[in-house]
Amino acid sequence: MSLKLKALLKSPWVFHLSTGSCNNCDIEILDCLTPRFDIERFGILLAGSIKHADVLLTTGSCNRQSVVRLKRLYEQVPKPCLVAAIGECALSRGMFIHSYNCPVPLDRIIPVDVYIPGCPPKPEAMIAGIVKLIEKVKAGQKRKKK
Amino acid sequence: MTREDILNDLSVRFKDDIIDVFDKSPKRVYVEIKPESIVKLVSYIFKDLGARFNIATGVDTRQHMEILYHFIIEDINLLVSLRVKLPKSKLEIDSLVSVFEAANWIEREIHEMLGINFNGHPDLRRLFLSDEWPEGVHPLRCDYKEWDKKAIRDRGV
Amino acid sequence: MARTIVPIGPYHPLLEEPEFFTLTVEGERVVDIDVRMGYNHRGIEKLSEMKTFDQSTFVIERICGICSTSHPFAYTRAVEDIITVEVPERAKYIRTIIAEGERIHSHLLWLGLAGHFLGYNTVFMWAWKIREEILDVMEILSGNRNNYAMFKPGGVRRDIKSEDIPEVLKKIDSIVPTLEMLKKAVIDDPVLHARTKGIGILSKADAINYGALGPTSRASGVARDVRKDSPYGAYDKVEWEMIVAQNGDVFDKAVVRILETFESIKIIKHCLLNLPEGEIDLNIKNIPPGEGIGHIEAPRGETFHYVKSDGTNRPVRHKVRAPTFMNLPTFKATVVGETISDATIIMAAIDPCYCCTERMAVRNTEGKKLYNGEELVKLSQKKTEKIRQESGC
């Protein structure tokens, strides 16, 4: 398990999952791939299928129809998998907290490892968030070895 | 035809169907009509006057339900909104799909959000609400109440 | 011939849902198409009734990220229509500048995605690289790359400083040569012609019957644009042309969008150079009972908002209609009869904004071949490669 996590942290493949968002965060995630920010030079690729994912980037405020798909997709991800909640909607549903179609926040459905706030968070913030996630996992590993 | 010509023509041609005309501003007119005459009036406005169908709005006022059909006559920049008042005991009206295809989806949406029935619509399925949403619960009504016991509505702080 | 049901996946790389449309296919030809929506429905119309008129503007901005200016623009015009009032001149010019900046970034986004679906990843990277310059311009003018929060009922919330204008003009001028290069790359490429001409034709009669809007209908010969028919903002004070094409296929839709980008640049430069002095806000204190309608031209078509007020500080009813709501049903007319490998690009050609409308989903079938989104995009890219090899370029 720790060998896989070590390999995962060297070049994490991200998979983007949207559970009912306004697409702003999703476009900023795609912006990270474009020549100005270019995260591919760090080894971070956008995976085509969920079975290749190491990190799940979730956006969106979990509306009723998407929750069914979200649970099914999370079961298909090969563990260990890290989850990053991006944007205010994924943190706590933001302004959609009283909406009739968004009953529960994301972290009651799947376990979340890092929260990246913003509406939408800038690409620099997202990259900083992923770096913090990697450092957190590495620190967690070191503590376990002792 | 100018704006005045069109409004006078409508008042004369459909004088039994029109209940009220509210001339709000040079670009906005609200015409209240009887529910039975909707297809007749819409056919005239769409085909003969060449107006474009914008959208239909369903409103739940406490006394009755209203549907507003918005059309725009682009050559003279006039937005005509046809208002239809439906009593809460009899929530049904004829569908406009026979006149133009653009009415298909909006009638499905009004049906699931407010519970108004459209006679003659080919396919009145759900459009936006999820499969687990219970039947008979219409979110945009005034008396809609939260039915989901497991919903979390506080921020947890 | 045996019929197969093909559920189609996300042809938008942003969306990850495995399937959303259901195509019924005979051999290679599409026979029927059905959509299931509801993945993006957040109940915004009901939410708007819980917020005041000012707070509603911030909720409305987050209906969609790509056309995030068009919704507050139409909403503030609807609220101003209740009292039939016009905002000051400087506010009109500032609103126009922001709206046109958004149009440029939205069309470039679409161009990149269309390039990706056809297999031209270079176009994708180039278009999004130029788009970053426009986002820098918006950041200088409003403080944020995406949700600008510049609109309020009665005017605009923030002013444009005159010392920012030279830098903005310099940035806009710097992207024009690259845009010209992209325009030639798209319009003169023979493989793209073979791939997009004659595909997914929407006839003029169908465009009127379905109520299609924006570049989707202008590519079919319907010469309608809210900026010309019901002028608002500063559009009647600038010289600009409406772009109309006649054939209604995917190629014409791309051409209309690319040429509109150049017109937008013209409008922004004129507004920045001729910005009048004066107030930017009317300071509306309360809204009397009444109804108002606001409609403006978003990058995808006409956005329509209806607001009803009863004298309190909250709207009683707020109806939102995005242009994609009217454009999506045209799939029945354009996709049926085409092949599977073309389905992706035809559906992308209307520039759908599902968050504005709602999104699509799955119909699962027993024992038939299922394609998901990635496979369909690859099918589309393979067809381009085949055409390129056959034509010998």
How would you describe the overall organization of this protein?
The complex is a heterotrimer of chains A (146), B (157) and C (393). Chain A is 40% helix and 14% strand. By secondary structure, chain A is an alpha/beta fold. Chain A has a 5-stranded parallel sheet with strand order 2-1-3-4-5. In chain A, helix 1 runs antiparallel to helix 5 (123-145). In chain A, 43% of the residues are buried. Chain B has a domain at 3-90: Beta Polymerase, domain 2. Chain B has 3 helices and 7 strands; from the N terminus they run αββαββββαβ. In chain B, a hairpin with a 4-residue loop joins strand 3 and strand 4 (65-73). The model of chain B has no long low-confidence stretch (mean pLDDT 89). Chain C has 393 residues and is an alpha+beta fold. Chain C has 2 domains: 3-39 and 343-391, no CATH class; 44-325, Cytochrome-c3 Hydrogenase, chain B (Orthogonal Bundle). Helix content of chain C is 49%, strand content 12%. In chain C, the strands form 3 sheets. A 3-stranded antiparallel sheet of chain C has the order 1-2-3, with no helix packed on it. Chain C has a 3-stranded antiparallel sheet with strand order 6-7-8. The interface between A and C is large, with 40 and 39 residues.
